# Entry
Amino acid sequence: MTPDEIQTFFTRRDGSFLCARWGRPVVPVVFGVDDATLATVKGGIEAVVTLAGHRMAETDPELGANLMIFFFRDWDELPQLPNLDRLIPDLGPLCARLEAAGANQYRAFRFDAEGAIRAVFVFLRMDAHLSAMPAADLALAQAAEAMLSWGEGAFAAAAPLARAGQTVILRPAISGLIRAAYDPALPAVARDPAHAYRLAARLSAA
# Structure
């Protein structure tokens, strides 16, 4: 990919650039699934964290868990969950907007004082489209989207997944960007679009 193409993955709606990675080990917790699906989802997360060269942990000293994934059927279920409105401000109005828009997923990122990712909240309304996806594929896609501060339109043209024969994998462009962004020589947070040149150089080297 060219630096210009890479920039589009991290450009926000307001035109600003932000490429941030996790600044702490990832500690996932999953709500609304059975034990078999739970193991599959956590396996997908672990695969992407390993791809990035990052770390997982048993607990986050500040939050307990910092990657929270919720599976549910209707947006109006979320405001009924105890204390969730303390984590997601204006939860009721947000769910109403998402329901009106017909959305089937939403991600909320939280950042630390330096700007690195501190926590991610993933909400998946299991409509016909998401329900038709194998759990392993859905987990892989959601893990990839939670690893970096992608721009809102990063996956508008193409999903993060691709098919290699009978196997579903991350698109090489996406897996390459994740690996490049987690290079220890690069900063955890970059707001200058010129950062895309650093990422492009590492993609070329790989």
User: Anything to note?
Assistant: The mean pLDDT is 94.
